[in-house]
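Good morning N.,

You mentioned wanting to compare the apo and holo forms, so I went ahead and generated the holo version with adenosine-5'-diphosphate. This is what I fed in:
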Amino acid sequence: MDIGAPSEDDPFEEQRERAANPMRRLFGEYGRPYTGQFVIGVVSSVAARSLDLLPPLLLGVAIDAIFLTGAQERPLDLPLVRDAWLPNGPDAVFLGFAGEEAQFAFLVAGVAAAYGIGAVFHYIRNWGWNSFAQNVQHDVRTDTYDHMQRLNMSFFEDKQTGELMSVLSNDVNRLEQFLNDGLNTASRLVLMVVGIAALLIWFNLSLAAVALLPVPVIAGFTYLFVKRIQPKYAEVRKSVGTVNSRLENNLGGIAVIKSSNTEKYEEERVDDVSRSYFDANWDAIQTRITFFPALRVLAGVGFTLTFVIGGLWVLRGSPPLPLLSGELSAGIFVMFVLYTQRFIWPLAQFGQIVNTYQRARASSERVFGLMDEVGRLEADADAADLTVSDSTVNYDDVSFGYEGETVLSDVSFTAGSGETVALVGPTGAGKSTALKLLLRMYDVDEGSIQVDGQDVRDVTPWSLRAATGYVSQDTFMFYGTVRENVAYGAFGATDAEVEAATRAAEAHRFVRNLPDGYDTMVGERGVKLSGGQRQRLAIARAILRDPEILILDEATSDVDTETEMLIQRSLDELTADRTTLVVAHRLSTVRNADRIVVLDEGQVVEEGTHEELLAEDGLYANLWGVQAGEIDDLPDQFVERSRERGARRFDDGTPADPPEPGDD
Ligand code: ADP
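and this is what came out, ligand included:
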């Protein structure tokens, strides 16, 4: 089995199918608040691009009216400009220049103004598009994240973190890129082609037909190119994903690689995936690098055609070809030649625009698919906040399974006000799962869990979580200072309160010895702290939040016995008048619990106090005996069951099936 390789299929296929009309939604839902910026982008693009078109036109006019014929014979004539504004006629004066020079000065001023005002519009255009794109991407990203973080835990178990990250970063970035560059390039293409075509047609319809001949050809050619290269790019993206997951997986498991001595093997596996990436990329590169030279040839043919026909027309007068009639001046000819060059390159981006659009569409399908993901712990509209009175927790015939496989069946027990109830039993018995159901990380399949008589599914999730404090075996430290980590979720806490909680969790001494004390940064996942230190900080976090109900899931599993005894003392204080559910593998830490519920294979098999259970001489008594060293091994019936489950160890780390001599 190829561990860690991403599946071939798009992990978000289901989500993508759900997201109908994603682009319409992108603009309709997220673009609408920023219509102003969008309109500014469009209007200033039109203005900026129109001004861009002005200099060749003025040059053409200057050649005809001033340089070749003399201004008195041929007055200036500009499209959309009133004759009265032009310095025509014998006494025309402009900026202190007279006659032909006045006309020349007028055209020079026009060119300068086109560039100057154009620059302002380009600035506004960029502001508009960027502002639109940034705002939309920000809203999309934060909305998607917010929706996602409220989904059921099972959603996160199905998806790899890397996949979700990729939607939140890559896909959202791709949308941003489309909204900014894509729309910008598309508007440029449309405006340049339409603008130039309009000008060419205005000046000389027949030559315009010749000059515009390459437009559909180039558009078609680039479209075909994109169609060809797209599957190749898809292949590249897939293989880059494989490379990333392989590297991520290997770096995460580096300790295992080293200890298993598999560096050589892993080197080959990385070589393999990297080679596939190379091949996929090379394939795409070969297609890509032939495109631009081919486009150049097409552009060259179009240009040459215009050049030859236009040039002959100027030299010899109207050529003997159908449709080409009338006169073509040298100025108009030069203008045509300049314009033809100008629209080739925007056209070459036609394919890229189609490509950007399609990729953005796929990205928005994934993003909106995620946003439509159901499985949020939605509170019913009429759900009330949990009102805690005496904090009784009641499990009432609870059954639950992950993806259908039953983990808990008909579990019932009660933790009365202020009581500490311990859940014990072999690994895999369902103890942690039972606690997670109380927190509504999952919802029960049958039965119910109530806090003070209120079904946890009928109250708002936030009020439930506010009333509960949870310390689990995998304690996560956010990147930040020790203080921030302890105060996480109790943001108003003062330094003195943080310190008091840390003291109570027996963590003050080690924190004080850290380089910056409470201001020491704990790295990503708190890697600079030992497991036991992290657990103590997590306990401090729970103490500080001072919840009515405390849930400890092997909260002290990672600390040494001595520290555990110390923490135990503060925990005893903490749990004394607080309803507490605790899962602990060291039975000595729960012997004083008010009640011990023994779970085996998802069922409650025994229940009582430590003494009562010892007297019963069942599973608990045996587990206790093993841990206390009174008996060497568990009775056969438990060992057998454990074998069937494939679990090799019971909670105390005792091998369930010690190897027999000669048994491998
Ligand atoms: P315990 O805390 O008693 O060791 P758990 O509640 O962690 O037991 O697990 C009970 C059973 O549920 C085990 O067989 C475990 O493999 C399975 N299980 C636990 N978490 C998940 C999960 N997120 N998805 C699927 N199965 C799970």
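Residues 157, 402, 407, 425, 427-433 surround adenosine-5'-diphosphate (CB under 6 Å).

Happy to go through it together on a call whenever suits you.

Best,
F.
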